[in-house]
Model the fold of this input.
Amino acid sequence: NVFFHKTNRFYCHFQIKNLIFHTTFPGSTFEQAKSHPRDVAVLSPEVKTPIPGPKSKELMGHVQNFQNTKALSFFCDFERSKANYLVDADENIILDCFQQISSMPLGYNNTELIAVGKQDNLQNLLINRPAMVTFADMNFPRLVHDSLLRVAPEGLSNVITMGCGSCANENAYKAAFLWYMRDRRGYELPPAEDDEAYSSCVMNQVPGSPKLSMLSFEGGLHGRTLAALSTTHTRPLLKLDMPAFDWPIAPFPKLKYPLEEHESENAKEEARCLAVVEDLITEWSKRAPVAGIVVEPIQAEGGDNHASDDFFRKLRKIALKHSVAFVVDEVQTGVAITGKWWAHEHWGLETPPDIVTFAKKMFIGGYYFNDKVNWKTPSRIGNTWMGDPAKLHLLKKTIEIVKEQRLKDNAQHTGNYLTESLKSLENIHSTALEGSRGRGLFCAVDVNGSRDKVVKEMLQRGVLVGASGPNSIRFRPSLIFTPTHVDIAMDRLDQVLTSVKI
Ligand SMILES: Cc1ncc(COP(=O)(O)O)c(C=O)c1O
Done:
């Protein structure tokens, strides 16, 4: 690396596989610059081709032979990508504020994670993937203890792993149904002589397959497997032509931002939605009783829709009052991005949720659950792989890094800066932007005009952001995002809004 002074920053080049990165390190002394972890290096994005570029297009052509490529934006060069910067197949260096749909806690190629990837047990698990439902690896108990259980939400001492967020929710619903039936019946299994229960369930009929439901919210997304999809209410194309469970759907509060300026009208809107939740639980008790309520702490894909901590406290109380399971989907909000490991920790609940589901930045899917909803008999929930335990090594190291580098604080601090910066841009481009909002680094702003055009034009200027809901831009950067990265992103957003008709 070559360092030289440039105003009050140090500047260096480094090279990964023939690609030269130009980097500045914050800090005014050479020692500070040298000791700064390379993972937070700040680069100016460099875009050399339209995105997707020729190489990406060529690869899309190959994929098109066996798969529809319409949802692909471009191809990534993961070997060359680093920290907050994604390098694409055409060598464009992109500041990534979306991080593989919010699933990379530490950005690309974190040096400590690379070292973990070389550990024997991890490699061994990759080669000999256990059928965990029956043949778990002998290191599994220790690994779970050092990873998943270190970040278990308060009150939830049980955990089960799954492959992805959809599987996590799908199986969490099953746990809620099992609990509900045991609770109402008074014991876990019908007696062996109750032949009807056992024979009818095999044929999908009552009484063995009871009519029960999960209550979900308009604008929620909980996955794309069939039961999870029945609780997903975002883009129609995810659902069109698919059979769905006919389950109750409550309105999610439509709040005005900034929240602190609209407290009383927002409180009314939340009270309205909570009243509907209670009405639905009562109404459905004859048709398909509600066994559980599933909710995201911030509706992510649905449009970065927030609700107050008070709303969630009251929702939790409703679940207790009606004795239905309270399932919090932290697939996107988990892992420190909101400033706490789990977003529901902000709520100040008197009684913790019954189930908390996770995936994405946790490297593995699954859910935590309390003793109340735990099932007692085997073969009730499980599948062959139940996720991939090799990933727990990465989670373990990530938990250590988040703690050592105080990344929850960084999410809070840089997140506040991001929301404030969005608000400043909103003042400058008052007809184009509104509704800046965020908790930690989980931030968004609404676009009046073509949101998709803004996202596309930003990418063309080297900054990748996501879309959520009908008109929001979502920011889901890594936990090592810094205010200087925010400045770069804001600069490109400003450029787009100044120079492009949206
Ligand atoms: C809140 C939430 N739940 C569930 C899912 C589904 O997760 P997966 O795509 O891993 O199945 C997602 C995916 O974006 C999500 O954001």
Observations:
- The chain has three domains: 1-96, 125-187+219-335+363-402, 406-502.
- Residues 364 and 388 are 7 Å apart (CA to CA).
- The domain at 406-502 is CATH 3.90.1150.10 (Aspartate Aminotransferase, domain 1).
- Residues 164-166, 169, 221-223, 296, 300-301, 329, 331-332, 359 surround pyridoxal-5'-phosphate (CB under 6 Å).
